[in-house]
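agent> Task received from the user: take the single chain below, predict its 3D structure, and emit structure tokens. No templates, no multimer pairing.
agent> Plan: (1) validate residues, (2) run structure prediction, (3) serialize to tokens, (4) report one or two observations.
agent> Step 1 OK, no nonstandard residues flagged.
tool_call: predict_structure(input=
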Amino acid sequence: MAKTSTFRRFKRILKRKLKEYNLYQSYVGLILGAVVVVTLGFLAANFLTRNANQPGEIGGGEKVSAESQQDKEFKREYIVKTGDSLSAIAEKTYGRQEMWIVLAVKNKIIYPDLIYPDTTLEIPPLLEAEAAIADLTATSYDVQEGDTLFVIAQKVYADGFKWPVLARANNVGYLANGNPLIFAGNNLVIPR
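)
tool_result: status=success, residues=192
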């Protein structure tokens, strides 16, 4: 009889342990299932977002663009090679060395004699470059609404901090707070 009660006790303990194990196992399964679902959700969202950020792509990878061929030509870049200078690059791209200043201004190059190989320069379209040269070589300037001497110096010298040169050349008056006094419609002389 002792053998039967021991066997029953063992059987009860085993059933209890199996119930605890099954309960534990179901929680583990639930957590792993949730992790899998969340991971798949992130992968799907990443896939959809990545494809949404590539406008104009058709199923086969063919690119469609609304830009005209002319616009594509104007969005040119030049990678600087060893021995290049801005004037040599201007000669290659525009056929005129004096256009180097347009490249310097467009690419915010402070020291035009110092450019590094493998630097990518943006090459503005010829019409834009010629307009910039005209601004940079002008000998007079008509003040527009909202202009300041700093802004004008930025346009004509590509350096806003040369505004005192404009102020001296045009005998500009000053307000009590020290700001230069210019008006829309004034014609300023641009010393070169």
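agent> Step 4: summary for the user.
Helices lie at 2-52, 69-74, 86-94, 100-106, 126-137, 149-157, 163-169.
agent> Done.
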